[in-house]
Amino acid sequence: MSNSKHLENILLLAVLSLIFFLAGNGILGLTNDNEVFYAQSAKEMIQQHTWLTPYLFGHPQFEKPIFIYWVLRIGFEIFGISNFSARFFPAIFGAIGVVAVYYLSLLGFRDKRKAFLSGVVLASMGMYFGLAKTVFTDMVFTAFLFLALLSFFWAYTNENKKTLGFVFYGVFTALAVLTKGPLGIVLPSLAIGLFLIFAKRIKILFCWQTLLGLLVFTLVAAPWYLLMIQKHGQAFLGEFFSNVNVRRLVEAQHVSNDTWYFYPVTLVTSMFPWSLFLLTAIGLLPYYLKRKENTFYLFLTCWIVVVFGIFEFAHSKVANYIFPVFPAVAILIAGFIYDSQENNILKRVLFVVTTITASIIALFPIGFFVSIFQFSKYISFRVPIYFLIVFLIIIASAAFRFIFKKEILKTIYIFGLLVPVMFFTMLFAHNDFDSYISSEKICNYLMKNYKIDNTVVSSRIFLRGVRYFTDREVAMVDIPGKPFFSRHPVISLNTEEQLKSFLQKQTITYCILSKSSLKTIGNILPAEYRVKVLKTIGNSSAVKIEYRS
Question: Where does residue 117 rank: exposed (0-12), middle (13-18), buried (19+ CB within 10 A)?
Answer without folding.
Answer: buried
